[in-house]
Amino acid sequence: MEKNIRHLNIQELCQRNGVKMTLQRSIIADIINNSKDHPDVESIYKRANKRNSKISLATVYRTVKLFEDANAIIKHEFKYGEEKARYEPATKWEHNHLIDIISGEVVEFQNPGFEKLARRIAEKKGYKTIGYKLEVFGLKEACKKIK
């Protein structure tokens, strides 16, 4: 993760938006806040259930949806390989993702040049940008073999 990509605290965002933070929700928020891998619901469940065996898969699904509706987390549906939605805390600045199609590893990066280009393209077509999303898919292993 790039140092200048600052993820926001899910618990703080939820509290600001009037979402009651139960113990189970706090555990789930903490897991997503501290994840470096954009986990899917099953991964969040496994990590949460280790900390509190009373957390069910259904609880995780409901809580993730609640956090998403409160704009505290971002849902990603990287359309390559696994079709599972993955999550990360909301961020202050927009950023992009490079997804390894073999391992599923997600690398975050920022590209201000692309943001400016997207804005210019939109303006040229008569639009004002309100955001953008760039996902790059790659093969890390292929780079090792090609020298």
Strand content: 5-15%
Instruction: Quickly give the structural class.
Output: alpha+beta
CATH class identity: Mainly Alpha
Summarize the helix and strand pattern as letters. HHHHEEEEHEH
Rounded Rg = 17 Å
- Indicate the CATH topology: Arc Repressor Mutant, subunit A
CATH superfamily: Winged helix-like DNA-binding domain superfamily/Winged helix DNA-binding domain
CATH architecture identity: Orthogonal Bundle
Q: Separation of termini?
A: 26 Å
> Which consecutive residue ranges, at least 5 long each, have pLDDT under 50?
none
Number of strands: 5
Overall pLDDT level: 83
Major beta sheet, specifics?
3 strands, mixed
Structurally, how many domains make up the residues? 1
> What is the helix tally?
6
Q: Strand sequence of the main sheet, in spatial order?
A: 4-3-5
Share in helix? 40-55%
The general outline is globular
What is the structure about, briefly put?
Helices cover 41% and strands 14% of the residues. It is an alpha+beta fold and 147 residues long. The longest helix is centred in the middle third of the chain and has 13 residues, at 57-69.
